[in-house]
């Protein structure tokens, strides 16, 4: 019962956030710039062309009507047609998500696979050369832009050694080739997140290793490996899980630059092209899609947090 109450409150908060996000996105994309048709076609467009575009996309209707029609389209997955591509926005986004979501999942998996062991190792070797080495690596990971790291990976592994393709995506008809094409972009996308997650894991492990129950386990003769992975790591994973959820949202949004570097036909590349083409219909729907994905990930993180630590269910 407490779990249902906890999740219902989190779901209500997410819905309120989503409604506020739709208002902000609608205002920024269609209200603040002025005439959306003029933004899309430019100041040199003829008056009859502008009038035709306003009528086609409903820009000549009152703001409240346009907003409610957009919300209705979101609820029914009828997002209208793209101005630049001349096709359904729903289909356009759906075709690109099959690239962006696997890319983000691969980057998140790689970040967790590398960062958690590194963080545990750094905590174990606290204030020793191993700890200093890991912290130096994380400092580099935070400082280096991921798009520059992507270019370095292309020069090394695609141009010099030719182990991976330099860009492009063959489609999921050939799964092995598709995963192969996503490896370098995923590595580039995850660099900063690996550094952040490593630091969070190290800090959480250090706090946990100072707890009384850890000292008790050591006093009873538990091996260091059992102390680290059985007693300390599970409790340390509570803050790590929260940060990993935030990172998952950043990975989806951060794919915009990486997909442009590797010429991947994902949602990030779609956003980049839509901005260049002034395709406001696509832009506002993709931004809301990013918002929904981040809120969904945060809900899943709240669920995982409640399972790992039952105390928030009581306090919520």
TrEMBL record:
List the record's Gene Ontology CC terms alphabetically: plasma membrane
Top-level division of the source organism's lineage: Bacteria
The residues covered by the ABC transmembrane type-1 domain are 97-301
Question: In its keyword annotation, does this UniProt entry include Cell membrane?
Answer: yes
Specify whether Repeat is a keyword of the entry: no
The alphabetized UniProt keywords are: Cell membrane, Membrane, Transmembrane, Transmembrane helix, Transport
User: Which subcellular locations apply to this protein?
Assistant: Cell membrane
Q: What is its main location?
A: membrane
The record lists the membrane-crossing segments as 101-124, 145-164, 179-200, 236-262, 282-308
Q: What Pfam families does this protein map onto? A: BPD_transp_1, BPD_transp_1_N
Q: Name one GO molecular function term.
A: dipeptide transmembrane transporter activity
* Membrane topology term: Multi-pass membrane protein
The family this protein is said to belong to = Belongs to the binding-protein-dependent transport system permease family.
Protein name (Swiss-Prot/TrEMBL): ABC transporter permease
Source organism per UniProt: Reyranella soli
């Amino acid at each position: 019962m407490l779990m249902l109450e906890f999740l219902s409150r989190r779901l209500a908060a997410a819905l309120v956030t989503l409604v506020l996000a739709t208002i902000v996105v609608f205002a920024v994309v269609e209200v603040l710039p002025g005439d959306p048709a003029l933004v899309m076609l430019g100041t040199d467009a003829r008056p009859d062309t502008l009038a035709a575009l306003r009528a086609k996309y409903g820009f000549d209707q009152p703001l409240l009507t346009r907003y409610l029609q957009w919300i209705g389209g979101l609820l029914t997955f009828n997002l209208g047609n793209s101005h630049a591509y001349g096709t359904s926005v729903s289909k356009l986004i759906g075709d690109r998500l099959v690239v962006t979501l696997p890319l983000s999942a691969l980057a998140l998996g790689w970040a967790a696979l590398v960062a958690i062991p590194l963080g545990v190792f750094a905590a174990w070797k606290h204030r020793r050369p191993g700890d200093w080495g890991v912290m130096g690596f994380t400092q580099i990971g935070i400082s280096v832009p991921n798009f520059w790291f992507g270019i370095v990976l292309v020069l090394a592994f695609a141009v010099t050694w030719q182990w991976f393709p330099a860009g492009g995506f063959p489609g999921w008809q050939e799964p092995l080739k598709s995963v192969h094409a996503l490896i370098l972009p995923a590595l580039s996308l995850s660099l900063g997140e690996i550094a952040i997650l490593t630091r969070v894991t190290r800090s959480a492990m250090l706090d946990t290793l100072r707890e009384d129950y850890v000292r008790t386990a050591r006093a009873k003769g538990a091996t260091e490996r059992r102390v680290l992975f059985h007693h300390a790591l599970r409790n340390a994973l509570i803050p790590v899980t929260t940060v990993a959820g935030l990172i998952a949202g950043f990975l989806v949004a951060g794919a915009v630059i990486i997909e442009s570097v590797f010429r991947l036909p994902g949602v990030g590349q779609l956003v980049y092209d839509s901005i260049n083409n002034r395709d406001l219909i696509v832009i506002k729907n993709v931004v809301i899609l990013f918002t929904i994905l981040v809120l969904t990930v945060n809900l899943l993180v709240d669920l995982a947090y409640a399972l790992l630590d039952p105390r928030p269910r009581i306090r919520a």
